[in-house]
Amino acid sequence: MAQDRNTEELIIEAAKKIFVQRGLAGARMQDIADEAGINKAMLHYYYRSKEKLFEIVFNEALGRIIGRLGQIAIDGELPLEQKIRGLVESYIAGVAETPYLPIFVINEINQRPDLLVQRMQSLSGFSNIMSFMKDVIEAGKRGEIKQVSPIQLFLNIVSMCIFPFAAKPLVQGVLQLDNVQFNLVIEERKKLVADVILAWLKP
Amino acid sequence: MAQDRNTEELIIEAAKKIFVQRGLAGARMQDIADEAGINKAMLHYYYRSKEKLFEIVFNEALGRIIGRLGQIAIDGELPLEQKIRGLVESYIAGVAETPYLPIFVINEINQRPDLLVQRMQSLSGFSNIMSFMKDVIEAGKRGEIKQVSPIQLFLNIVSMCIFPFAAKPLVQGVLQLDNVQFNLVIEERKKLVADVILAWLKP
DNA sequence: CTTTGCATTAACCAAATGGTTAAATCAAAT
DNA sequence: ATTTGATTTAACCATTTGGTTAATGCAAAG
After folding, report:
1. What is the sign of the dihedral through the CA atoms of A66, B166, A90 and B198?
2. pTM for the full model?
3. How far is CA B203 from the centre of its chain?
4. B111 contacts in A (CB within 8 Å)?
5. Which residue among A35, A72, A159, B131 is least crowded, i.e. fewest CB within 10 A of its CB?
6. Which CATH superfamily is domain B1-48 in?
7. Integer distance in angstroms from CA B9 to C1' C22?
8. What are the tens digits of pLDDT across the range B70-84?
């Protein structure tokens, strides 16, 4: 079950699956080895410790979540409305590809905030977010949109995009939605979330 | 350090703190015992197993989160706008009292969705949520608000109220907010989130 | 064919962990 | 004072878990 592909990659793939599913504390090295179809000792041969392996998986996940946030300011030329519509749609679509990443990242950061602090500066999306906020302030001054706190705008967008995934089982339980219905709701949100934000921003 | 108060309560208090902080997999019985200032064996004397103790803590936390959601439909006489303003304010205030509960509950449900299914029916807030949804549909038909999916309305409110807490360290890291600034942002949201929702609902 | 160096495995280890037990302590009733 | 029942403790146990090691497999270079 393990011969074909590169062993290192096999391990990372397996580690991703197990860590994201169970978290650092809940993940077992044996389970990762089983998932990869190899011996447990191989994990330590290629990646020294559970911690090291976890850091690789976590940092990639964090980059994926925050990196996506960076998309918030691309397409600098478009009017803010188009920018927001495009952002929401692509962000929801992006998160939907790996719906369990947000809760994994959020939870691990919650237990060890230092995981974030280390990587903050080096993450690409960061400066884009700042320039987006400046855009919002400028547009507000020009009267194109209502004057709002860019931080709150940012929080509102991210909340409505990510939370339904982070709380997916809770949402499905409370609202009695099967997977098909849940996906329909998500699909509808790609437009709807932007509608909500833009209605609020109307001057 | 343990004599004064009821031992059972001391244990529950300690278990709450440790479980909410580290999750089921990350919590150690010894840590709970230390936190309560008692012997580890006492945990098993009063509550048979880690699982049993966890269930008590988790169910109370779940009730607190979902129970609050039930507030969504109280004050049945008020107009929908007042209802929503009151709901958002009290919900954010409620979550702010125990900001780490959402991520705890969400994360544990994520790893064991059965935890939710068991308790769903018996949770009080549930029927209130349903009746709130009917109210929304009625108000939409009467033209008091725009006709929107009550599920989406519900998701939007809950997302904007809960997510900032669930992702608190991530939010603080990305937006460079210290605790004081974070609390100010939250305070501002008690009104702002309702503004966003009501702007969207305007017919 | 032999050597060399990486890859892989099985067996093993020490520490941690959830749980148990038998003895001791304590408070109230007799 | 003694008995009785619940409470508390220290020592112990079996299993799990992250990690190590020594031996083996194996493919390419000599």
Report:
1. negative
2. 0.93
3. 31
4. 21-23, 26
5. B131
6. Homeodomain-like (1.10.10.60)
7. 26
8. 766 656 678 889 989
